[in-house]
User: Fold these one by one.
Assistant:
Number 1:
Amino acid sequence: MKNTTLFYLLILFLWSNKLISQENSNQGIISGNIQTIGQYYQEDTLINAALPDHQYGFNGFANINYQNGDFRAGIRYESYLNTLEGYPISFNGTGIGYRYLAWEKDKLGVTIGNFYDQFGSGMVLRAYEERQLGIDNSLDGIRLKYEPIKGMYLKAMIGKQRYQFVDGLVNGTGIVRGLDGELNLNEIISDSNKNSRLKVVIGGSFVSKFNDDNKNPVFNLPKNVGASSIRFNLRYNKIRFNGEYVQKINDPYPDNQNEQFNYIYKKGEGLLFNLGYSTKGFALDFSAKHMDNMLWRSTNVNVGPTDLLIGYLPALTKQHTYNLAATLYPYATNFYGEIAYQADLLFKIPKKSILGGKYGTSVAINFATSYTPKRKFVNDMENSRNSYSTKFFSSSDSLLFQDLNIEIKRKINKKVKLNLNYFNFKFNDNAVKVANYYKMIYAQIVVLDLTYQFNRYHSIRFETQGMWTQQDKGNWAFGQIEYTFSPHWYLAILDQYNYGNNNIEKRLHYGLISGGYIDGSHRFSLQFGKQRAGVFCVGGVCRAVPASNGLTFSFTSSF
Amino acid sequence: MKKLFLTITAIALFSTLSVAQSRTLPSVDVKTLDGENINITAIENDGNPIVISFWATWCKPCKKELNNISEVYEDWQDETGVKVIAISIDNSRSMAKVSPYVNASDWDYEVYLDPNGDLKRAMNVNNVPHTFLLNGAGKIIWDHNNYSPGDENELYEELVKLTE
């Protein structure tokens, strides 16, 4: 009920503002949005879709924001009645899950209540919301932002992290404190250097946490743990070069699965680089990452995989969107550590050339690979408990994931657009444990996506996908037809068929029909059919979604 | 708690009646592709309309929309003086892919990054693509959440209405 105080403040403010506004007609702006998803479940033992006792699931989110000059305030009302299947059940009930007041004056910004923020790439601190995954680790406390001179940006914050939702916000017990500074040298030096061809931004952060959840009698656990990072961002003409280094001092966690990581006092480290060249119609980009023992939470007991995370560990892979490529063997960052590389090549074959055709052809090639770091175990679990040592970018031969994918996009003529994709995955499920197969999986996928535009209102899209693999559930076929009547209507029918499953009884069809109506910022959609169990990922963080059969209604709107 | 919420809603709804017509851009910082901070309210177009489109490198319909507009962008600019701003909501995982993609696709848009989702939240964007049209005075007069081939024509008609 401590939330209440803030609310009275908010109401008081809105109300007093209302009074003032009658005098100077400075009313401010109120805006908001709503998103709701309702599901009606049916039992389907064939695809393993269970029927929960409550039969219906419902998740709803509504934001209301108020802005008046440099003052802003907002709340988010959340309802999980009952929580949708596959969504974290630690979110349930109905109430207010987020509220804040913020103002800015003379280069100083203050936020009280909940806020989202990130330092650099987020490895040292990232408070964010990924609603589709049920991740929300917003900080609840106070944040200051200050720009003492042009080009110098300072941030300081302290707060508790959102942990669960039970008829309202439930914070974890740990405390997070953070400082961040960023210098934009081009802005600082002078305006005449603003057009300099060399652009330089440097930054650094320090984050510490206090946690006292773990009362383990055997180990002397640190109650305060610090982490720090430095970063740079360079650009010279068409070349960009960014990097960040992060380290964390001893921060032992229990690990029931792997004794070599159970309460270890080794420091964690991460190094991330990105080098790229891009010009009109051509881009080459390369990223490298060394990450070891960087699990970083505001608690030191076991919690859910995405709970109370302070740092974010970006996966160096492309996020796929075609169904079979995105949901069967997607890669999620390995918390223990990984050494990963990624390269992207994008180019446009010019129009009116032999290969390019009349309108030109776009090609995107992406290669990503990830290995376990080479760990030298030192056998010190009786005393210092460092457990092992690693060297930067020294990887073992244990492959976690490899992905080669090629996308070719071509406009054939005024009415037809073609998109061809090829994917080649090597997926070590023994380490990644996403498919419950626990062995190496080799898969290839081909996608053909064709859009035919009849006229300015009507178009039809055909999508066919095939996946070939000897492992796990075997081969899949996917087909979808989507008809759109711009700007209001769409209707789609799709089927997924696991025709290559070794178990003949599991060679099932998953049919789905969906339709929707869009009117400006209002969007209604209805979906009926079977949903395959799969993995849903955003930003390298994944959640397993169980199979379901039934009716889904969703609505989003903003004003 | 419930009462409180009702009160807030009531106030909110009441105020909306009088102000919903005049939504403008919120005062929020975004980043340029070079890492510079810029307040979105500082964006101007000499009294001509501005289109703001939220997108991400992992969002197919978003890229379709911006690529399709790109094909006719020069004509739109000549006829209506419009300027298109593309706001990428890519996070630190995919942010590095924005600049290569924009260049390789040959977009002539102003592109900004919103990796922390500050502008996205302030503009009440639930999902991408979400496209806004601002008139010459900076007021949001039209928005659309979704993209289907042909939707750009509706946007174009709104643009033409503005310049008539």
Number 2:
Amino acid sequence: MDKLVIVHRGALRAKYGATALAKVDAALKALATADKRRGVDTLVVAVDLASAMKPYGAAPVPARPDAKALKTAIDALARARQPHYLMLLGGPDLLPMVPLKNPAHGGELGDEDRIVPSDLPYACEAAYSTDPNRFLGPTRVVGRLPDLPGATRPDLLLQLIRAASRHKGLPRASFMDSFALSAEVWQGSTRLSLTNTFGHADGLRLSPPDGPKWNKADLAPRMHFINCHGAADMPEYYGQRGEDFPVSMRSALLRDRVTAGTVVAAECCYGAQLFDPALADGDWPMALRYLTDGACAFLGSTTIAYGPSDGNGSADLLCQYFLQRVLAGASLGRALLEARQKFAGERTHLDPMDLKTLGQFYLLGDPSLQPVAGVSHALARTKAFRKAFATVEDRGVRGLRRERLEREGRNLARSLPRLLPTEAAPAPAVLEAVRPMLKESGLDAEHCARVSYRISGAPGHRAIHVYKGWVERRLLALIATEQDGRLLHVRRMHAR
Amino acid sequence: MPADRDAAQDGTAECLRGRLCRERLDLGSKSERLAVLLVVDDGDRVVLRRAGANPFRDPELEALEGQVLIVEGERRSSYFLVRRYTVCGDEPPSAG
């Protein structure tokens, strides 16, 4: 089976009623027909029905869906059917996300998020856990076609299923123009991300002074890259210059302005959070407004994200890798899987912020859609070739790609070191080297706060020590990496 | 008197009393900011966000730094949404 659509019929019925469920069924049937034309065999699986789950030896997901039961069901389906695509139907109130523990949380020492709602575990073979260290090696292509939290009518869900059915890939040239928006304070980082992805950063818009009213011509490009601030339950993004944080984008102002098939990557904190519009005076989350206005994909974060003001790191990298894979012709879901693997794979170990980044970004959109249509080689256009592969179409090649991605993911899961909190103090030589750096930074090693992690699985003894303290009413952090009792690396983060 | 909590559940109406302060939060993240917090009697620190105001910069609340406030609103996952507030001056919270 090429594509599994994961549905919780009971939750859908409870939210929208039996009549609406019949409409969703009809829309999914049309999607399966459209997928078939695109060379994708699609099966809708009701994970809450015992009869549907019995062939896979899995228990049905309870009437009130929970992430653990859903993860177990998805694992059983993935093992049995080895789908090339897994599509979760609906938002978190229909199919919950996994509440991962936030490795960067620490009260005053870290960010405010206690948990990181995540779809990453559904893309991994490891069993259910809320420990993000368990999910370092994704192997599956996963995306979520959302609905509107708090809604009583399934209009958005139906619209998105129908849009996915109608979707057609376009030549790569159609995606080489971008709408790029950055908080002014992060423009150095954003220019680098754009240059890495599109070869230039021409046309980058900065906030301030630009926004939040964008016209249709501004938003016309099919690739959107946004590096602004976001906040929980807010239908807006924000720019920054000094202590000024103007609104850079407002969801209500996107209406009738987005080009069909647009792909969005937003680095913003809470950039893809799905909240009930009632929490925002009726205004929709940015991601859902984008999708309802024609975007086919939205990559964003559920929680507070990380990235430097200059240079690239964390969210910058995951977002640009995703867009680069889309441009290379990958399906949306494969683009995210490859981005996740590249992000995790190019590091010796993930620090708490990188670990959070890997878990917090997720794809809203049908993972099987391929925005940039593939250009077939000359042999593929011959009669003999088409005859030989008439029944399997793209399936065989796709299967080879999945084989490689599974191998890569398993390698990462096996080989990437884990981050484990530890009470162990830094080695004397490390403390001796760090103490003057702390002093120069205005901190005192004996009195500032420290959180330490042991890097389990790294060669020898490796640990990370995060020192934080207040200096002239500004928090400052010094992150020291210890290897076998010696200082291996150190970086300092200033409050901006 | 400790903060008067009419309801403990997330999202329901609640009333808090405490002193307003500003602190830099979420260091190193994309949400790093000088936030407005209410320090209530039991030491709990609650991030405030005034309904309809910019979550990153709210000059109206910032101008009340150091003052004791009674705020009414809803406690949400990572902040307290302020619907109404009353300034009690700079008296210590326990005096009220």
